[in-house]
């Protein structure tokens, strides 16, 4: 509740979903009893649906009807699809190594080389995986794609991208390899060109992945409300594209949700259309993003069961008078409050309760002095108008104490920042609001975020009319349709 919710994107790229592009090559190499399974597994993995792919494989393994000669092929299928963990990799290592050494068919041999590369990566032996590829004089298409995506360095990847005869699947592997080595700018440039050349679904996916990674790289850890208008517009543009692609695929490609849900979480659901379609297909992604799924169930259905306990309490407090009464009695009967209880009191109870806590000199329990100082400041700001005169002296001192211990408003949950400055404006402490927000907001490229609104209020009511009108003119294109504007 206290710290900023999360960074922009914790993207779930997974591993090996580009291998869907190799499915026709691979299915031809599979024995008859695995052909149908391989097609289905690659289809699932290609859409980011690892859970379904695992279920299919578990089903065929549990029947016990798979022939002995097919076992190495099943292992290769699982490895290249990214569906094997470390313990299983250790157990099948001898089988895959032997199958690679014994294979006479060049394409089958290359398939087992690709599997061996993935196996050694699972076992955290990257150097050995590189050696396996580079020591094979006749490495083929499948192993080459694995090498590019998971092992090649940035110079090798940039060189490969410029080859005139590179295939679409190899290009996908190159782009994902560039994302792996944090070359998002180069990956985005190549993905943009490739998307226009190849014009298929997988390039739409990898282009958006590169775009998200590059955007994230420029955020510098800033919360959404504190980024420039140009960045906000990019986030909304990506949201619009994702909403369309999710609709076009009827929610069948989980890779889109692996981008969409983190964007919604980061931006406080700035795109209602994207939020709506993610809610429509929530069963497709809820197991991967349990926290946000629980939040949507709470806001859409008033179902709070899956929420974390402190978040659940926050929702319930606004619906239950007995719960508020219980919190009030607890707060007024104690001399120290836990961080969560203090924040709930500030959020859900009347200002006269805050007044009594201040009078009783109730403190906050935390090992983090920054947390203690900020909540002390927030609590005084939440006091009633009876404290207006006292706060004109107390609050500047509390802000200074927060800075003196190295406190950083950038690290605070933006919702709490809005609550703080809204309260400061209520107490007519406009210069304090401007002092806090002036260091946080993108004043050269602004947009009308909830925090910017409070800043404008502080400028105007604080008689800083020149700064107010200058900022308002910059906000014209973004805010002219707003009733606030």
Report a brief summary of the structure.
The chain is mainly alpha-helical. The chain has helices at residues 23-27, 32-46, 50-63, 71-80, 86-102, 106-122, 126-134, 141-150, 154-161, 168-180, 184-198, 201-217, 229-248, 254-266, 272-280, 282-285, 290-301, 309-317, 321-333, 339-348, 351-359, 369-381, 388-404, 414-426, 430-437, 450-461, 465-474, 476-479, and strands at residues 336-338, 363-365.
Defining key terms:
disordered N terminus, two-stranded parallel ribbon, 28 helices
Structural commentary:
- It is a single chain.
- By secondary structure, this protein is mainly alpha-helical.
- Among the domains are: 1-151; 222-307, no CATH class.
- The chain is 67% helix and 1% strand.
- It contains 28 helices and two strands.
- The chain has helices at 23-27, 32-46, 50-63, 71-80, 86-102, 106-122, 126-134, 141-150, 154-161, 168-180, 184-198, 201-217, 229-248, 254-266, 272-280, 282-285, 290-301, 309-317, 321-333, 339-348, 351-359, 369-381, 388-404, 414-426, 430-437, 450-461, 465-474, 476-479; strands at 336-338, 363-365.
- A two-stranded parallel ribbon has the order 1-2.
- The longest helix has 20 residues, at 229-248.
- Residues 1-16 have low confidence and may be disordered.
Low-confidence stretches are: 1-16
Report how far apart the termini are: 30 Å
User: Order of strands across the widest beta sheet?
Assistant: 1-2
Large-scale geometry: elongated
Rounded Rg: 28 Å
List the helices and strands and how they pair.
Blueprint: H1 23-27, H2 32-46, H3 50-63, H4 71-80, H5 86-102, H6 106-122, H7 126-134, H8 141-150, H9 154-161, H10 168-180, H11 184-198, H12 201-217, H13 229-248, H14 254-266, H15 272-280, H16 282-285, H17 290-301, H18 309-317, H19 321-333, E1 336-338, H20 339-348, H21 351-359, E2 363-365, H22 369-381, H23 388-404, H24 414-426, H25 430-437, H26 450-461, H27 465-474, H28 476-479
Parallel strand pairs: 1-2
Helix pairs in contact: 2-3, 4-5, 4-6, 5-6, 6-7, 6-8, 8-10, 9-10, 10-11, 10-12, 11-12, 12-13, 13-14, 13-15, 18-20, 19-20, 20-22, 22-23, 24-25, 24-26, 25-26
């Amino acid at each position: 509740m206290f710290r900023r919710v999360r960074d922009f994107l914790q993207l779930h790229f997974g591993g090996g979903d580009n291998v869907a592009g190799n499915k026709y090559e691979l299915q031809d190499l599979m024995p008859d009893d695995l052909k149908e399974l391989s097609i289905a597994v690659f289809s699932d993995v290609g859409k980011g649906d690892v859970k379904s792919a695992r279920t299919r494989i578990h089903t065929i393994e549990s029947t016990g009807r798979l022939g002995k000669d097919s076992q190495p092929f099943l292992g290769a299928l699982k490895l290249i699809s990214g569906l094997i963990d470390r313990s299983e990799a250790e157990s099948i290592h001898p089988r895959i190594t032997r199958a690679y050494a014994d294979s006479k068919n060049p394409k089958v041999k290359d398939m087992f080389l690709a599997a061996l590369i993935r196996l050694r990566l699972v076992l955290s032996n990257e150097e050995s995986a590189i050696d396996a590829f580079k020591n094979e004089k006749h490495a083929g298409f499948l192993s080459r794609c694995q090498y590019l995506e998971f092992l090649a360095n940035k110079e090798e990847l940039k060189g490969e991208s410029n080859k005139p005869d590179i295939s679409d699947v190899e290009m996908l592997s190159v782009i994902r390899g560039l994302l792996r080595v944090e070359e998002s700018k180069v990956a985005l440039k190549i993905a943009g060109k490739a998307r226009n050349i190849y014009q298929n679904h997988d390039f739409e996916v990898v282009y958006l992945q590169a775009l998200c990674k590059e955007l994230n790289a420029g955020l510098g850890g800033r919360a959404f409300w504190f980024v420039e208008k140009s960045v906000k517009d990019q986030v909304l543009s990506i949201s619009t594209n994702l909403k369309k692609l999710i609709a076009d695929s009827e929610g069948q490609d989980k890779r889109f949700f692996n981008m969409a849900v983190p964007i919604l979480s980061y931006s406080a659901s700035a795109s209602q259309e994207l939020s709506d379609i993610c809610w429509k297909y929530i069963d497709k992604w809820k197991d991967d993003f349990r926290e946000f799924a629980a939040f949507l169930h709470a806001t859409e259905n008033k179902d709070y069961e899956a929420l974390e306990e402190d978040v659940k309490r926050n929702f319930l407090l606004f619906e239950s008078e007995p719960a508020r009464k219980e919190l009030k009695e607890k707060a007024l009967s104690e001399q120290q409050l836990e961080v969560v209880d203090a924040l709930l009191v500030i959020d859900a109870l009347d200002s006269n309760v805050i007044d009594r806590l201040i009078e009783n000199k109730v403190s906050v329990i935390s090992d983090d002095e920054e947390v203690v100082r900020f909540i002390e400041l927030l609590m005084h700001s939440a006091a009633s108008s009876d404290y207006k005169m006292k706060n004109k002296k107390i609050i500047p001192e509390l802000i200074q104490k927060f800075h003196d211990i190295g406190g950083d408003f950038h690290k605070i949950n933006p919702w709490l920042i809005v609550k703080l400055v809204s309260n400061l404006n209520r107490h007519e402490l406009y210069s304090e609001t401007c002092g806090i927000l002036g260091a946080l907001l993108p004043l050269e490229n602004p947009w009308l975020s909830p925090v910017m609104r409070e800043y404008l209020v502080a400028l105007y009511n604080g008689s800083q009319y020149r700064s107010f009108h200058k900022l308002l003119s910059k906000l014209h294109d973004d805010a002219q349709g707003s009733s606030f504007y």
